[in-house]
Design goal:
Elements lengths: L12 H11 L2 H7 L1 E5 L8 H14 L4 E4 L5 H16 L8 E4 L24 H7 L2 H18 L3 E2 L23 H16 L10 E7 L18 E3 L5 H13 L4 E4 L3 E3 L12 H11 L5 E2 L9 E3 L2 E3 L11 H11 L4 E3 L3 H9 L5 H17 L10 H8 L2 H14 L1 E5 L10 E5 L11 E2 L8 E7 L23 H13 L2 E6 L15 E5 L4 H8 L17 H6 L26
Parallel strand pairs: 1-2, 1-12, 2-3, 3-4, 4-5, 5-7, 6-8, 7-9, 14-15, 14-16, 16-17, 17-18
Antiparallel strand pairs: 10-11, 13-18
Helix pairs in contact: 1-12, 2-11, 2-12, 4-13, 5-14, 6-7, 6-13, 7-8
């Protein structure tokens, strides 16, 4: 029996793509244009429910791109994805599934931006990697992710974020490489290359979807556009071109997929509609100016709403809310979108083509891009993974060691009044430190009156949002600490010298805390053990701030959302960080 051309690995990806495309029905092509989410059986859905949902997507809707939402055990994830690949292999054309995931290796865990998986190595947030200023470490980080994702059967990474953290209040800034456009550009490029694992996509690559074009940082007052109340993206400093620089670095690094953001630009020469529907941005900038001919995948749920962990999310079709989902879909495809994240309604594409409102030739353009990526990734020959290898790679001690090294390298010593390093014999009183995970021969006292030093871990403040449809997964609002927190630190400092360690998920206002601390440390995702090792002088302090730390909320309110380093007289400026070597 003659082998079908698209199944022949001796042919080029382009030749195989054209052969497969010629064999596909309208319905099969339409299925390529959607990337819905699934849950791993267990915590949220039963195995029976999960399997029925997956079979419907793969067999009835011709879906072959799937977003893996959760899962903690690398072997269980691999086993489940193998099972779904078996279903896909038994469809008419046997097109393998391209599985994607959000970031899984950080400390910030959210069903909307990435759920932390305990079974893989743990790294600081991307702002922490920016704090290291270590481009090679970023490449190594991406390479570790590549190997962990490959072992589980995940071939598409929803990142990196090429956004500039220009608005301190932005709730997603922790996922960026900081406030400086050049640092962000260099690290975005290094990450893409490390994830790819070589000069071109191969069977050993994980492909990156760089996001959120044309830069999601300038959210009005930092309120993220995931929430339908906060659609607006603003440019009071007219810095649209500056926010494109990290994307230009991504294009130069050979990125093959791009995700536009939800935001609706206000007061620019762009259309006042979400970026995925925005002709001057997608067609004019991305496709024409930059000549990008790769895949454009929207952010999630632009067409229809979904329930995510009991919370209703979407549709986020900003500026086009009056249109039907099918009409919004057509607008997005017309401006150059190839795929819709989260949504799974290929019947709408079929209806548009059948009714003559969308040409099959235009559909073929997107299908061709999507199929070509599968062939370049070697998915037809490498759809299944070794379950035991997934377990071994997830538990690899060297990967975990490297992640902890990055956590430590990012730690930023902001202030030190000869308080550090601490002596091992020091009696510690601590708050928000889990001593069960420390495993160090230290004296821990239960009351500050008995301590030689207080070590207090805090997180950057935010305003709870009881009325928010998405819960408190997005931390926004004020960045200064409440009077209760400040007074508590004052009381502790009256009893013993106090060291304050702050998780800088966002650039916190530390001016009121600083006088009550003999040492002040910024961290971006680090374990208790890593932090105590640094305080004791076992690891050096080498990190520097990846953004300014504003002096006050008034300074933040007076700054412009799209202009980096725009808060007046920051308490600590970008690049600040005291060096402290290890104890002799």
């Amino acid at each position: 029996m003659t082998q079908l051309a698209y199944l022949n690995p001796a042919l080029s990806p382009e030749e195989r793509t054209e052969d497969l495309l010629s064999r596909m029905t309208l319905e099969e092509k339409a299925g390529l244009m959607f990337q819905p989410a699934i849950n791993i059986p267990g915590r949220i859905v039963s195995a029976e429910t999960a399997l029925a949902d997956a079979e419907k997507k793969i067999t009835a809707k011709n879906i072959s791109h799937i977003h893996v939402m959760d899962g903690d055990d690398t072997a269980e994830i691999a086993q489940w994805l193998n099972r779904l690949q078996e279903i896909a292999a038994n469809t008419r054309l046997g097109i393998p599934i391209s599985f994607s995931t959000d970031p899984r290796s950080g400390f910030h865990s959210s069903p909307f931006t990435g759920k932390t998986a305990d079974a893989v190595s743990r790294w600081p947030e991307h702002t922490g990697l920016a704090a290291t200023r270590d481009i090679e470490l970023v490449r190594q980080y991406a390479d570790v992710i590549r190997r962990e994702m490959l072992a589980m059967g995940i071939r598409v990474y929803l990142g990196p974020m090429a956004d500039i953290f220009s608005e301190p209040r932005w709730s997603r800034g922790f996922g960026t490489f900081g406030e400086d456009p050049q640092v962000a550009s260099d690290m975005v490029a290094a990450f893409i290359k490390g994830l790819r694992g070589g000069p071109e996509l191969t069977a050993e690559s994980v492909t990156a979807i760089v996001k959120h074009f044309p830069g999601g940082g300038p959210q009005l007052r930092g309120m993220d556009a995931h929430d339908k109340r906060f659609r607006e993206q603003v440019y009071p400093g007219h810095q649209q071109e500056l926010h494109l620089r990290p994307f230009e670095a991504a294009f130069a690094a050979g990125v093959t997929q791009v995700m536009p953001y939800y935001g609706m630009p206000i007061g620019t020469d762009w259309q006042e509609r979400g970026f995925a529907f925005n002709a001057p941005v997608i067609k004019g900038l991305l496709r024409e100016k930059y000549g990008f001919d790769g895949i454009v995948c929207t952010d999630w749920y632009l067409l229809e709403p979904a329930v995510v962990e009991d919370l209703t999310f979407g549709p986020n079709g900003y500026g086009l809310e009056e249109l039907t989902p099918t009409e919004r879909l057509k607008v997005a495809v017309d401006v150059g979108v190839d795929q819709f994240g989260g949504d799974d309604c290929p019947e709408r594409v079929v209806d548009l083509v059948s009714s003559g409102h969308l040409s099959e030739q235009r559909l073929d353009t997107s299908a061709r891009r999507l199929l070509l990526e599968k062939f370049r990734l070697g998915l037809f020959e490498h759809r299944y993974v070794d379950i035991e290898k997934a377990r071994v790679v997830g538990a690899d001690p060297e990967n975990h060691r490297l992640g902890e090294h990055a956590q430590a390298a990012a730690l930023t010593l902001l202030k030190n009044e000869n308080a550090l390093p601490l002596a091992p014999a020091t009696r510690f009183y601590t708050e928000n430190i889990d001593w069960d995970d420390v495993h160090a021969p230290l004296t821990h006292v239960m009351h500050p009156e008995h301590a030689d030093v207080n070590v207090i871990r805090l997180s950057a403040p935010y305003e709870p949002d009881p009325d928010g449809a998405l819960g408190d997964f997005f931390h926004h609002g004020r960045l200064d600490f409440t009077a209760d927190v400040v007074n508590h630190l004052r009381e502790l400092s009256d009893l013993a010298p106090t060291i304050v360690v702050v998780y800088l998920e966002r650039p916190a206002v530390l001016a009121d805390l600083e006088p009550h601390a003999v040492a002040l440390v910024g961290e971006y995702g680090a374990s208790d053990r890593v932090i105590l090792e640094a305080l004791l002088g076992h690891t050096p302090f080498t990190g520097t701030l990846p953004f300014d730390l504003p002096r006050s909320m008034d300074a933040i309110k007076a700054s412009r959302e799209d202009v980096p380093f725009d808060t007046a007289e920051p308490l600590y400026a970008f690049g600040h960080g005291l060096a402290l070597t290890t104890r002799e």
